[in-house]
Structure formats: structure tokens, C-alpha cells
Amino acid sequence: MPTTTQEARESVAAASRHLAAAGLLIGTAGNVSVRVDNWVAVTATGTVLADTTPDLVTIVDLEGTVLQGTLAPTSELELHLGIYRGFHTGAVVHTHAPKSTAAGCVLDELPVLHYQQLLLGGATPVVPFHPFGTPELAEAVRQALPGKQACLLANHGAITHAPTLEQAVAHALLLEWACTLHQDATALGTPRPLTPEQQTAVIEVALKTGYGTPKPIESQHK
């Protein structure tokens, strides 16, 4: 995690370019932030995310007061700050990713079709529509996120958060993959979600085996 304002601005800029290259951030639509102690580095409003540089990232406190930078922060600042105030989290990513946005135009909830979605907290809720940048949207997102690492915004986009910016970015990519999977499965027929019992069984196996974490090869010689 970054510790200085310059490191934070660099990490937010790099994450924005990464997400744009992956097709999750289009033009000026979307925003990224990371929290360090009692301040937040967040993308500035009206900037092209694919071209984000550290000077296009603004530093604010948890009340939204600008501490460093020359550009106004994103219009979705209150959405980011609401998540930081309500949850012990270190980074927030908001995208208008195509498949995630499409899912939010149709579904009331994205069901768990694949066990990797458990990394996002299971089924992903869809927040009712509110205009961007409004207190109502920020509050609706805050209410949807307990126990979840992601939510979809009806007819708008997606939100992910995590302890680190790298994890929040990974969650955004995973959510887009899950929405793509749901769309592909629906084209073939009626999707078959994992039952609560199947989800619990996966969690038990993952905890037992340390699934998803690198492990050294154990020596076969005693």
C-alpha cells in the first residue's frame, strides 16, 4: 500500500490505466481511489482514465476537502467517501464496464454461477437507480455493501472495494468476468446457480487447501 501522497497518486493513475486497457473504464466514465490514513487519493473529474497521470489525481480528506492537487475530484467523490466512512476498506473502484453495466440493466441480483464469485461476497446486489453524484446513490451503495466486495448500480455501472487497490482492481475484473459468464450462460439456457450448501462446501475446501495462494512444493524426502 502507498504511504505518501505521491505514491498514492501514482498507484491510482496506474490502476486507472490498467482498468482502461482492460476495457472497464471508457473515456472519462469511472473513477478510482485509495485511502491512506485519514486522506484519499482519487481521480479528478472530467479526465480520460486511459491517460491518467499522477497530476490528474487529487488528494482529499474524509470530508472531501481538497488537500493537494489542482483539479476538482470526481463527481462521485461522496460515493467513495461514503464507503470509506462505512467500511474498513482501503480502495474503491467504480467502472462503467460493459458487461457489468448490462447486467445492472436487467438483474436485481447477480447470482453465484461460479465459486470464484465467493471472493466478492457471493451474489452481487444491484442498487436501485439514482442519478450519479447524488447523496441518494452514495447511501444506497453503502447500504448494499455489508458483507460484499462489490455491487452493481442499476443502469449505471459497478462498484468494487478491497483492503488494497490491487485487490479492488482484481475484484472489478472478476465482476466483469462473472457478468460475462452470466450473459453467456443465459444465452445457452437457464443458468444453474450454486446452492448455499455448494457455496459452503467450496469455502470449506478453499480454507482447508489454501486455494488461491502460492505454495512451495513440499519435499518428498523425509
TrEMBL record:
<dbReference type="InterPro" id="IPR036409">
    <property type="entry name" value="Aldolase_II/adducin_N_sf"/>
</dbReference>
<dbReference type="InterPro" id="IPR050197">
    <property type="entry name" value="Aldolase_class_II_sugar_metab"/>
</dbReference>
<dbReference type="Pfam" id="PF00596">
    <property type="entry name" value="Aldolase_II"/>
</dbReference>
<keyword id="KW-0479">Metal-binding</keyword>
<protein>
    <submittedName>
        <fullName>Class II aldolase/adducin family protein</fullName>
    </submittedName>
</protein>
<feature type="domain" description="Class II aldolase/adducin N-terminal">
    <location>
        <begin position="10"/>
        <end position="183"/>
    </location>
</feature>
<keyword id="KW-0456">Lyase</keyword>
<dbReference type="InterPro" id="IPR001303">
    <property type="entry name" value="Aldolase_II/adducin_N"/>
</dbReference>
